[in-house]
Amino acid sequence: MRISVLFTALALASELSACSTANIYDSLQDHERDRCSAMSDPDRTTCMNRSSTSYDDYKKQRDQATGKRN
After folding, report:
1. Which phi and psi (to 5°) does residue 51 adopt?
2. What is the pLDDT, as a whole number, of residue 17?
3. C-alpha to C-alpha distance for 52 and 24, rounded to whole angstroms
4. How far from the centroid of its chain's Cα atoms is residue 61's Cα?
5. How far, CA to CA in Å, does 2 sit from each of 16, 33, 48?
6. Are 47 and 32 in contact (CB under 8 A)?
7. Which has the closest alpha carbon to 54: 65, 64, 45, 62?
8. Torsion of Cα atoms, 50 then 55 then 57 then 61, to 10°
9. Regarding predicted confidence, which is higher, 14 or 32?
10. pLDDT of 8-22, one tens digit each?
11. Contacts of 63 (CB under 8 A, 6+ apart)
12. Is the pLDDT score of 46 beyond 90?
């Protein structure tokens, strides 16, 4: 019984960690887009394109770059 409670707690912590990482990434992207808004048009377009990568796409790119497999 105690092992299943521990396993459940670890699984939940892992899920919450992944969720909060995505939330932090999204918040940073929002902040970057706000910063982009203050730029002149050519720079703003480049900045907005750079900050439009979804967390899932970012994670895939990061995992490929570091050689991680899911």
Report:
1. -95, 15
2. 64
3. 15
4. 11
5. 21, 47, 49
6. yes
7. 62
8. 80
9. 32
10. 666 666 666 666 888
11. 69, 70
12. yes
Which amino acid is located at 51 in the chain? S
CA angle 53/51/39 to nearest 5° reads 160
Q: With beta carbons less than 8 A apart as the criterion, state whether 66 and 36 touch.
A: no
CB of 43 within 8 A of CB of 51?
A: no
Minimum mean pLDDT range among 18-22, 34-38, 40-44: 18-22
CA distances from 23 to 1, 5, 6, 43, 45 (A): 33, 27, 26, 26, 24
Q: Collapse the DSSP code of 7 into the 3-class scheme (helix H, G, I; strand E, B; otherwise coil) and give the result.
A: helix
Q: Is the dihedral of CA 70, 24, 36, 52 positive or negative?
A: positive
What integer pLDDT is reported at residue 68 of this predicted model?
80
For 30, the enclosing helix (H) or strand (E) is helix 2-37
pLDDT of residue 70 exceeding 80, the answer is no
